[in-house]
């Protein structure tokens, strides 16, 4: 039997590193003396760095009391803001570069004149011209913290955009703030109260010297299939066969561009508009009488996905506070193993020829 000893991994020490540097320097010096014309330019660069490092004793202790002076800060390298010659890849304009899912507590105005502090996910980006290597990402975050104590509104977001456009010397910029907004709702018949939470995003887009203010809202409702309802009633009336129509939880992502020439469109206002368009919103608190009422409400409002987006459009068209809009609806079928989807737009802001392949995967509400 052969006995094998367990290989012990060697951990390189500072001394090992210094010895390796000295060895490499000796080899390069020998190469220079032998034939200096054949030395690769990259190796010459290494030689210059070694000349600076070989006599330096490096410390591994964190300097807790070190305070950088102004001259030290100026001397620090800034690769991200390097010259155009340092750009990797195509020297081409980047439409958006920035940060995503930067989270902080933010206070928002509400329709009732109070404020509400909510955990908010921020996405901020700016354009980058073709002759610039990069941006300073932290400047976007710092712009938000400069306004962290303000109650947020579109005006405050616009101020933040202007700040980080200036900090990053960019022409275009965008901010999107996502949060879950609570509203107290009353059940249909028992009058119990509970909180409904709405996924909302505020977006300000500053591009081509035009500022657009947008609200995105995910509205969750029940959709009863009109065809299934008719077939169920046919079975009941012709054969006395009990049958139930299929209905399913459905989601509409309603995106509206706010018209700046008209009064404020509150979050609560947009929710109310959705309830007018499609009244079968999912319920929070229910007793037996509420469940029966909800079944009756669905039967009174059977709706295909095509009907849904057109109903939303009809309501949005009638509100002068809304300049343009897009509604994306997904009925997550209980009959089929696929979903029914539809998109309707008005105005130029949301017009597009191609869609993200995963757009409708995000229209899914987890209770």
In short:
With 367 residues, this protein is of the alpha+beta class.
Question: What labels would you give this structure?
Answer:
9 helices, single chain, Urate Oxidase, about 375 residues, 2 domains, about 30% helix, alpha+beta
Distance between the termini: 63 Å
Gross morphology is elongated
The CATH architecture of the largest domain would be Roll
Main sheet characteristics: 9 strands, mixed
Number of distinct helices: 9
Q: Which class best fits the helix and strand makeup?
A: alpha+beta
- The overall average pLDDT, rounded, is 86
Sheet with most strands: strand arrangement: 3-1-2-4-5-6-7-8-9
- Return Rg in Å: 31 Å
CATH class descriptor name of the largest domain: Alpha Beta
Unreliable spans: none
The CATH homologous superfamily of the largest domain: Urate Oxidase
Instruction: Return the string of H and E elements.
Output: HHHEEHEHEEEHEHHHEE
Which percent range describes the beta-strand content?
Answer: 25-35%
The number of domains: 2
Compute the number of strand runs.
Answer: 9
Q: What name does the CATH topology of the largest domain carry?
A: Urate Oxidase
Level of helix content? Answer: 25-40%
């Amino acid at each position: 039997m052969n006995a094998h000893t367990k290989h012990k991994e060697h951990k390189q020490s500072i001394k090992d590193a210094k010895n390796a540097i000295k060895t490499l320097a000796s080899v390069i010096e020998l190469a220079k003396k032998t034939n200096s014309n054949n030395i690769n330019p990259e190796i010459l660069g290494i030689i210059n760095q070694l000349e600076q490092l070989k006599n330096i004793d490096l410390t591994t202790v964190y300097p807790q009391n070190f305070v950088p002076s102004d001259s030290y800060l100026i001397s620090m390298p800034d690769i991200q803001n390097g010259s155009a010659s340092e750009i990797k890849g195509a020297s081409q304009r980047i439409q958006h570069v920035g940060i995503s899912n930067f989270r902080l507590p933010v206070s928002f105005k509400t329709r009732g004149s109070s404020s509400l502090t909510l955990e908010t996910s921020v996405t901020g980006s700016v354009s980058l011209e073709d002759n610039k290597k990069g941006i300073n990402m932290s400047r976007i975050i710092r712009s938000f913290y400069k306004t962290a104590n303000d109650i947020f509104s579109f005006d405050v977001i616009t101020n933040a955009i202007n700040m980080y456009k200036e900090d990053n010397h960019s022409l275009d910029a965008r901010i999107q703030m996502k949060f879950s907004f609570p509203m107290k709702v009353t059940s249909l018949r028992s009058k119990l109260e509970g909180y409904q939470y709405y996924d909302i995003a505020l977006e300000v887009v500053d591009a081509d010297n035009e500022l657009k203010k947008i609200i995105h809202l995910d509205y969750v409702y029940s959709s009863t299939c009109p065809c299934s309802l008719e077939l169920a009633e046919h079975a009941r009336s012709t054969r006395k066969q009990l049958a139930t129509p299929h209905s399913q939880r459905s989601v509409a992502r309603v995106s509206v561009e706010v018209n700046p020439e008209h009064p404020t469109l509150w979050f609560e206002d947009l929710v109310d508009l959705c309830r007018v368009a499609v009244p079968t919103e999912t319920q929070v608190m229910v007793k037996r009488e509420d469940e029966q009422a909800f079944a009756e409400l669905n039967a009174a409002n059977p709706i295909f996905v095509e009907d849904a987006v057109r109903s939303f459009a009809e309501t949005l068209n009638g509100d002068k506070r809304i300049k343009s809009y897009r509604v994306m609806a997904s009925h997550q079928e209980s009959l089929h193993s696929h979903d029914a989807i539809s998109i309707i737009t008005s105005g130029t802001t949301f017009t597009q020829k191609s869609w993200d392949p995963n757009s409708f995967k995000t229209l899914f509400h987890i209770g």
